[in-house]
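Collaborator request, handled under Task 6.
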Amino acid sequence: MLQILSPKAAGRKARYPDSKKALSKKKAALCTRFPAPLEVLGITLAPPRQGKVEVTLAACAICHSDLHVIEGAWGGSLPAVYGHEAAGSVTAMGDSAGDYQIGQRVLITLIRACGTCPC
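Structure tokens returned to the collaborator:
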């Protein structure tokens, strides 16, 4: 299992529905080397930083730009999890994470939005 970051070392606090939960364990399609097939592995995530949320995905798309990265065309640090077109629910929140709520359904996209207009 890959530990992305230790919350104790990072000194972060996050709001989880279960306050005893310190780390979030997920399965992810991980890119561990270029060019190579993705590997589905267990990973451990640190709690979300200030202003960030953790989203458990219900669906995720891999687009052509992700394929370029996986093939090593654009480089990058590894290991990495790709996919910027997704839908899921908020499962943890860092401090000052806005008006999100645990369990709220959200979309993740590469296109940035102001978050205030209904578009």
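The cover message to the collaborator said: "The CA atoms of residues 67 and 77 lie 15 Å apart. The chain is about 10% helix and 35% strand. Please let us know whether this matches your experimental observations."
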